[in-house]
Design brief:
The complex is a heterodimer of chains A (about 150) and B (about 250). By secondary structure, chain A is of the alpha/beta class. Chain A is about 25% helix and about 20% strand. Chain A has one domain. Chain A is globular and about 45 Å long. Classes of the chains: A alpha/beta (about 150), B mainly alpha (about 250).
Chain lengths: ~150, ~250
């Protein structure tokens, strides 16, 4: 995305007025070597399996997507981003096939069985409880590396 | 997204994120972040281009080997956008008033015909892609237009979906209808051009006109939720506009 000052007026005004959350930025976890890592994707695209409960407009909760799930729908509240890319190729927003290929090629250790999506329009401070739940699930699956992908 | 990175990092995971708003990444300081100068909705860059997508992933994952935090780098390639906007936006002056809408029943019939004409190619598109993104509303495609049309007439139909009120369902139906059109056009004409697809759907199809009619009716509606989602442009793509949104006074606009 271009810099905020380069954006058209409506989007620029909206994004300028957003108050960035004040999280503790001192945390640092020493990475596992990539070839040994187990990776989960966390997406804010509000994508879920067909038939799952739709995300509400300011949802704080999350949905789980299996490594091989491909029949997905999106219930994101915002319309300011292009949806024609993911209509063509899920990997444009959630690159599960790419990670699976990288696992086969031994570029990464492994791809987690489960991945997680949130509603990106919600305030991240409100997502903390859900993020801690997701953390527990990822720990149970021995995930060590999280790849965060916006939409 | 940056905040989530810090929560997960605090729980003992190494995180790496790719992101769009560089100024926020600089302020929130996630441990490892790669800034993308791409259109929104395309964080891995290019559909059906595995090598480009892997390049984004590889450059992001290289950050896992760098320190000290915060590590923030730019992806070396740019996918250019038109006039700074991250996706298609309706022209500022393409706004209807309720008294300009004409005969909604006639418009509805035109949309039904248009949609019916698209269906053979839409079904081929599903075969070709092995999937469709249509279906968030869980309504039959044949029910999309009648449901939307009721709102364009100023009515608020009862939601046929248990647990989902009429207006949130309307939003999903609008997006499903849009997706039927764009998935079909992408397949039929082998195009990947978000500006062209946006212009075609919103400015050249009867379906686009019907949705603009809903916007016009919603802005004058007694229903606060309907008025709000229209004025916030949650039904129509105006976020990347250069002018005031419909329903918002142009006076004082800067």
């Amino acid at each position: 995305m271009v810099l905020i000052r380069e954006m058209p007026a409506v989007g620029r005004g909206f994004i300028e007025r957003l108050e960035p959350p004040d999280f503790d930025s001192s945390h640092w976890t020493e990475p596992v070597p990539l070839r040994n890592s187990k990776i989960a994707i966390v997406s804010t695209a509000a994508v879920s399996n067909r038939g799952d409960k739709p995300f509400s407009w300011l949802a704080r909760d999350y949905r789980v997507i299996g490594k091989n799930d491909r029949d997905l729908v999106m219930t994101h509240v915002a319309v300011e981003y292009d949806r024609t890319a993911w209509q063509q190729d899920l990997n444009t927003i959630i690159p599960l096939d790419r990670l699976i290929e990288m696992e086969k090629d031994k570029e990464i250790g492994s791809v987690a069985d489960n991945h997680y999506t949130f509603m990106g329009a919600a305030d991240p401070r409100d997502m903390e409880k859900s993020a801690l739940e997701v953390s527990k699930k990822m720990k149970m699956e021995a995930v060590d590396t999280v790849f965060l992908v916006p939409v | 997204m940056c905040g989530l990175a810090q929560i997960f990092e605090s729980q003992g995971f190494s995180t790496v994120l790719i992101g769009f708003v560089k100024e926020h990444m600089e302020v929130i300081k996630p441990p490892r972040a790669l800034w993308l100068n791409f259109p929104m909705g395309r964080p891995l860059g290019k559909p059906n281009d595995p090598e480009f997508q892997k390049k984004v992933i590889r450059v992001a994952f290289e950050l896992l080997q760098k320190s000290p935090a915060p590590v923030l780098e730019d992806f070396p390639e740019i996918i250019p956008v038109k006039e700074g906007r991250m996706s298609y936006a309706l022209p500022v002056d393409l706004v209807y008033k309720v008294n300009q809408l004409g005969d909604i029943d006639k418009l509805t019939d035109e949309v039904k015909k248009e949609l019916s004409n698209l269906m053979p190619d839409y079904l081929k598109a599903i075969d070709n892609n092995g999937r469709t993104t249509v279906g968030a509303s869980e309504m039959e495609i044949s029910d999309f237009v009648p449901y939307i049309s009721e709102f364009a007439k100023g009515n608020k139909p009862k939601s046929p979906r248990k647990g989902l009120p009429a207006i949130p369902l309307l939003k999903l139906v609008v997006e499903d209808l849009n997706a039927v059109y764009t998935e079909t056009r992408i397949y039929k004409d082998k195009i990947d051009d978000l500006e062209m697809l946006g212009k075609w759907f919103w400015q050249e199809t009867y379906a686009g006109k019907l949705l603009l009619a809903i916007e016009a009716v919603s802005l004058e509606s007694d229903d606060q939720v309907l008025r709000q989602i229209a004025s916030m442009s949650l039904l129509t793509p105006r976020f990347w506009s250069e002018g005031p949104l419909p329903g918002i006074s142009g006076s004082g606009w800067t």
